[in-house]
Amino acid sequence: MSVPDDPEMTRTSRRRFLEVSVSALAGMGGSLAQTRSLPSSPASTVTDLTALTIAEAAARLSSRQLSPVELTRAVLERIDRLNPRVGAFITIAADQAVAAARAAEREIQQRGYRGPLHGIPLGVKDTYYTKGIRTTAASPILDDFVPDFDAAIVERMKAGGAIVVGKLNLPEFSFGGYTPGCNNPWDLTRNAGGSSGGPAAALAASMLPGAAGGDTSGSIRNPASTCGVVGLKPTSGLVSRFGVIPISWTLDHLGPMARTVEDTAILLKAISGYDRRDRQSVRAPVPDYPRLLRRRIRGLRLGVIAPAEIEQFHPDTRAAFAAAVDVLARLGAEIGEVRFPARMKAAGAAHGIIRISEAAAYHRQYLTSKAATRYISDVGRSGPAVSRVRTTVEAGSLLTAAHYLQAQRARALFIEDMTAAYRSFDAVLTPTMPSPAGVPSSAPETFRAWWNLSGFPAISVPCGFSSDPPGLPIGLQVSAAPFRDALVLAVAHAYEQATDWHRRRPPL
Q1: Is 195 tagged catalytic?
Q2: How far does CA 477 lie from the centroid of its chain?
Q3: Mean pLDDT value across residues 9-37
Q4: Which of 17, 199, 425, 472 reaches 20 to 30 Å from 106, CA-CA?
Q5: Enclosing domain of residue 456
Q6: Residue 168's closest CA among 205, 141, 118?
Q7: Which of 352, 360, 358, 357 is nearest to 450 (CA)?
Q8: How far, in whole angstroms, is CA 45 from its chain's centroid?
Q9: pLDDT tens digits, residue range 365-412?
């Protein structure tokens, strides 16, 4: 990839930006002129524009201390340098991104600032329709598919002035918790997780300040935990899924991913809201999520999953989780143990039946055509990197309507029990993943899919690093009752501000 040349570099308007920018790109090659250092992290010292959070960059863009073109070029240069090793991007839309950045720059110069996403480079998982940019879902079936319209989330990002720089990696059609070819920036010999592995890896590597992913069985929270970033699965119906390739129509959630909780809240506010094109979209007010981060958590009732439920989790995960609970207790939260009834655990198995039944319904258009031969083959192959989409959806096709309806009845019981469990608590805390990246786990239940089955909101926020193996991120999950997304964000933010895990960067 090469960054497009900018013929307007000598214009007076651009010169004004460059004179006050804290870090500019010198010359047509885009080498970084580092003029001011950001606060150093325990892991590294970062001095370039790609280290800025959305909130930090927005402050500089709105005051015209920073040019959207310079920020976008810095991001593209870092992607160009690191993506061959990290594998976070499938498609990089450099020409479109620089053109959008120029447009954003003109608007901001003319005092047409739209808000905190104006001029911010973002990426989306490669299941999101993007007008004029191919959307592959990491499958040969869609290798040449170029949509003629944007997904609802992309529409809303662009309406806020955001710049889409590319499409992010995933397993074929989002199936699985392993993203082939996407390496974890904390240890490039390990995977970034999945299915939103590309967004998580890009964020951890500071290739982007924000992104959007998808979560059907934990696929935002899994890689967020594995890569040491923040990922939110919002309440079902809060964020439109229109224009995104589905796995399961009733389990799929779309949500924001970023390096901080504040940035995640900024993104959630921008992408939330009713959309008549999504049948599950809910008419509900969109709170000012960033402003509501500041609420005190003293006196909040936080439920902690019983130790017996996570006794087979990795020792480092359990230790980091216990330490995170202690932090929130010191902040004044009231901690109590939450237990889930046996019926609820049994009903949770409905998730798998619903997931593959609905996936089979979507994939029937390919299974019954010549496209069926273009799925990635799993014949004679084994291991987590192997795509089993065709095998899975063919199995789902064998399930009957009775199986599906019984699963939905079980789901109703599950939601009833989960709602009852949350009546005693404002939010519930669990580890996000049972073990760090690539470390085998014998845990019979990871709990992540429960929040897809129920539709309750849940976020993963960094809460530590492993000691064996050393240096791998660990995540804390915070969840709450439906439409209490602002509370989930506030608890996560309070924890984040009391620790420094989110400030650490991998040594790339």
Answers
A1: yes
A2: 13
A3: 34
A4: 199
A5: 302-341+412-479
A6: 205
A7: 352
A8: 25
A9: 999 999 999 999 999 998 999 999 999 999 999 999 999 999 999 999
So what's the pLDDT on residue 2?
Answer: 42
Task: Write down which residue in 408, 428, 456 finishes a domain.
Answer: 408
Instruction: With respect to residue 25, please indicate whether it lies within any of the assigned structural domains.
Output: no
Dist CA 249 CA 334 (whole Å): 37
C-beta of residue 223 within 8 angstroms of C-beta of residue 246: no
Residue 75 and residue 50 in contact, taking contact as beta carbons nearer than 8 Å: yes
Same domain, 328 and 236: no
Whole-model pTM: value is 0.91
Which residue among 21, 67, 125, 139 is the active-site one? Answer: 125
Report the relative pairing of strands 253-258 and 210-215 from DSSP bridges. Answer: antiparallel
Look up 281 and say whether it is catalytic. Answer: no
Q: How many residues does the chain have?
A: 508
Q: If you search the block for the tokens 């970062």, which residue do you land on?
A: 46
Q: For residue 274, what are its two tokens? A: 């009713």
Secondary structure of residue 376 in the 3-state scheme: coil
Q: What residues does 33 pair with on adjacent strands?
A: 24
Q: What confidence category does residue 33 fall into, taking pLDDT thresholds of 50, 70 and 90?
A: very low
Q: Which of 23, 196, 206, 219 is catalytic?
A: 219
Q: What is the pLDDT of residue 49?
A: 97
Q: Are residues 259 and 277 in the same domain?
A: yes
The answer to whether the CB of 127 falls within 8 A of the CB of 248 is: no
Q: Is the dihedral of CA 233, 236, 242, 246 positive or negative?
A: positive
Gyration radius of the chain over CA positions: 22
